[in-house]
Structures are given as structure tokens and as C-alpha cells.
What we know:
The protein is α+β, with helices and mostly antiparallel strands. It has 3 domains: about 5-160, no CATH class; about 165-285, Alpha-Beta Plaits (2-Layer Sandwich), CATH 3.30.70.2510; about 295-405, 2-Layer Sandwich (Alpha-Beta Plaits). About 30% of the residues lie in helices and about 25% in strands. The strands form 2 sheets. Strands 5, 6, 7, 8, 9, 10, 11, 12, 13 and 14 form a 10-stranded mixed β-sheet that branches. It has a 4-stranded mixed β-sheet with strand order 2-1-3-4. It binds zinc ion (ZN) (2 copies). The site of one zinc ion has 8 residues, from loops.
Amino acid sequence: MEIIEQVEAILTYGETCDHCLGRFFGKRSHGLSNDERGRSLKIALAIAENKPYIPFSGTCWVCGNFFENVPEWASRVEEAVSGLEFSTLLVGCRVPPLIAENEEMVWSDLSLADPEPFKSEVNREVGKAVSARISKVVDFKKPDVVIILDATTGIVEIQVNSVFFYGRYQKFERGIPQTHWDCRACKGKGCEKCNYTGAQYLDSVEELIGRPVIEMFDAENAVLHGAGREDIDARMVGTGRPFILEVVAPKKRSIDLTVLEAEINRTAEGRVSVAIKRWAERAEVETLKSNKAHKKYRILVEVDGELSMDEFANALKSLKGVTIYQRTPERVAHRRADKIRERKVLDIGFAGQQDGRFIVEVLGEAGLYIKELISGDGGRTIPSLAEILKRKAHVTSLDVTQVDGAKEGE
Ligand SMILES: [Zn+2]
Ligand SMILES: [Zn+2]
């Protein structure tokens, strides 16, 4: 069928606006908008049939004259994003099923080769109108804000995408978990045991860093993604643990990271401190969390009975470079699968004594359980320091002193 015949056939379904007519041939003749293309086709048909050309003035059977309302949609969007700071956006829409059915019927009845769907014209036209009004740029890949038009209800929904930054944190106080824990008794609802806070521990590294962040970005939430986890009773010192903080639904985005860093460090009052290195992206989070970096620890070990420093240091030597077989430790067995992992002790050394305890520095492969390396965990970890010494040994305090990170930028 010639194009002109297809146009004639389409117009027999009912009155069709220039947008919808042009869109049925939407992927032909670039450089024309759909309504220009539609109007030109109507003119061509009028000339071919030698009939007067009458501009469209009725109600379109496909879209119900949706495109007359583009300025109205743009002003609704403008209202919905007021008070939000952002620079890039993307417009999407939910198409009323009837409109989709109408156009799909014509596509298949006439075997049209190059139609454009209603949805993409709406996204483009409303996007253009919005960016002209509020001078923002459309970004298809990583928009700050996604605007969804519900063409059936007339409602505009706004999704504000998260912002991310990369840094390292230190934790100077024991007893602070890395992330928020719901109260075990009430699962976060609030009960007598947790003093109606819903929290098992009042503060976490996540919250100590997150609170000032939520405030400065005027955000809904802040989520900590750490390069590995540390025990609640371990300190995280030395060069600190790499993390990415996800700022959820921020109303502000242009925050000075230096000022933010100072504010976090001020409000955390020496319990936690951060060094913020740079902005980050969502795609980095998975890489960071699956970080297979080696970790360095400084631990205090208590051993039953009398033992000379030499005996102790010699026992440590026989663990150096050795592969350790660790069945999932008793203390985490309730939340992790029971299996045996193999991890290497890359380096281990005696570093002095303190209050009758031995100071040990360990460099372990990612995932090595340090407490069990010392205690043996009732035979679940082999070999262990306790096994070598043939007496009980356990870790009384643990500091993480180094975690290797991603590229830090700057
Ligand atoms: Zn239409
Ligand atoms: Zn509770």
C-alpha cells in the first residue's frame, strides 16, 4: 500500500489529530515532528484528491487530543518538582490502555512498518516542554529526577534518584554496629526492652554518619555500604574502612563534601570519623561490597596459664602463611550457612604485651575469622593458636587497622 492510501485508510477509523497521524509514520523522514508530518500527509492527501485542506479541529479517536494538554502537563511537572534541587531529568509516562489498543490495532490492520508508540512521543514532548520551562537537561542514562506522568489519572509522580559519595570511616568506640539493627524483641516496632526506640543499639556507624547527611541533603534516608563488615566490638582504626554512602531521595544535591565531612566529624564526637574522598555512583556499590581486600588487625590475646613471650611468638610463627579451615563460627551460625571456608593467614606477628595479654598483628585474606583463628572455636577452626599452644586462648579486643579500597580519586 502506498503511503497516501495508508493515510486514507487511517482517516476512515475516525478523526485523527496531526500528532497521531504523523506518529503512525514516526520513524520516517527525520527532522519533522509528528504533528508536522501528520499535517503534511493531510495536505498531500488533499492535493492528491483535489479536495480542500481542512485543518484538524475535532477530537482525535486515538489520543483524545492528549497533545493539546502538553503545556498543562509541563506546568504540573513544574509544580511537582518545585523545591527540589536537580540538574537532569527524564520524563516517562503510563499510557491509558485504550490509547495503546487504538494505535496497535492500526499498526496491525495496515501492517505499518515505522510507527512510533504514543508513549515515546509523550515522553519527548513533555520532556521538551518541561526543560524549556525550568531549564533542566534531559538525561536518559542517569537522571537526577525521573518524572512519571499517569495519563489516566493526571497525576505526576516524582522519583528522586540517590546520590552517592565514597570515603573511609574509622570507629573508635567498641559496641557500635556498622548498620542499624532492629530491636530483637520487637523487630523495630518499639517495646519496653528497647525503650521504645525500636533499635537494638542506639547508634550505628551508619546512623552516626547518616544523621548529618540526611539533614544537609534534606534526604529521606542514608544507607551505608561498607567494604566488608566488622564486629560490633571491634574498633576500625588505621586507614579506615572504605564505604559508599547512599543518600536516598535528597532534596538538595550540591553539597560541599568538605563541609559535610567536617559536620559528620563534629556531630560524631570522636566515636566515628570520616574522610570523604569524592562523589561516587550506584554501579560502584556492588564492587565495593564484594571487596576481596586483605585486612589487617591488631588484637589482644589472653592465654590460660603461664607462657613466655618466646613460646607465644613461636606458636604464632607456625600459623604464618598457613591455610586455615574454618567451619562457620558458632557465634554467627544462626545467620549464615554452615560450611567450611579456607582462608590464608598472610602474615602474623607478636607485637608486645599489654596488661598480661599478648598483642598480635594479623594480615588475613578477606573473610578470615580472626577470633576463631585464636580460640579454635571448639575444633571448628583448624589449625588455631589454641590448638598449637594446647591451651585455651581468646581475643579480648580487636582493632581493624587496614582495609584496602577502591580507587580513591583526587
Ligand atoms: Zn491524537
Ligand atoms: Zn524493642
